[in-house]
Write the structure tokens for this entry.
Amino acid sequence: MAKRALDMNAYFNRASQSPEILPELVHMLEMSALVVNKQNFYSILDIEVLAADILRNGIRQPLEVVMQQDGVTYRLISGHRRLAALQYLKDHGESVPEKVPCIIRRFETEKDEIEAIISANCQRDKTIEDEINELKYLQPIFRERFEKEKPGGKFRAYFARQLGVSESTLKRKLELLKLSPALLNRLKEGKLPLSAAYELTGLSPEEQEEAEHSLPEDASVQAAIEVKEEIRVQKASVSSTLEEAAGEEELAVEGEMVGILDSKKSRKKSSPKAESSSQEESGGVSPIHANQPLPNDLHEQFAAAVSETDEVDSMTKEQIETADFHRLSVQMQKKSILWVADFCRNQMRQTAERLVEEKDTSKQTVGRIAVWKELLSHLDSLEKKIVG
């Protein structure tokens, strides 16, 4: 069964029958005043054949243009190939008219202008790139109308009806929008058959890049299928290997977490304020990740944990004069160390739990836990010196 191409005539023929569109006067405009429309995405091919026809029969149909803001030049809506053919004849020493028959159009929005460009090209032979670009430009235009008109049903069915094609044909064409730039270039250059391109649209961008490097220069459908299957087999093999490695690393991480929790239990119990501060911190962001900052109120939590204001405020004048401020200083230093140590343990515990939950078993992350454990060891030594 022959493949059905996109047929824009179904929509644009209905649109052209609107009673609001009336015949417009033909103006003879200087060829030098006509400029290419940047919105035109259609390929300009077979210029020599068209140039020969124009040389024999002249311009059969007026070009369509829009006056630009300068009021002097006109950008093309239709007639890009005809203008290119005229320029070709002129460059090859042929006599061409200085003025060209044109119809001046007016559009309210840029979308209307784009749609007019597509409408003007609905009868021409199109490359696969032309069809893909048509869909790329028309899809947002018709989606906006679909949401405004609310005809019911799904958008793709509505879009297909407007274009005069089946949903299955439209679906296959839309799949081509997923092609990577490299594979799309192959398709444009004829180095990748359309059926082979469809085979590769289901791959991720990274997998498509790998496929593009693996495909032979002139790839066949069978080559595309083989490359796709090879990529999927490799992906399944890598996933299996990672799962096995994650299982082994998970046991190691669980051991780290158990060690951390046991260490906290055997640790000398912190002051109530320090424990409260540690519990408040349990919902914070782990600072072992370089790209995640410490909590903004960290200094306030620390100040609350080591404060001795209650003890000092309750002293009488005589007690203050005879107080052992060295002892108070030692207590504050000790509480500071205990708070920092408890904070570190809490962060390591959260990290270990996250590692187990998210299966983040990279050597770098496990290594960071080891660094924190080393820090705790130094804090233990420092605490013993202060207490002693």
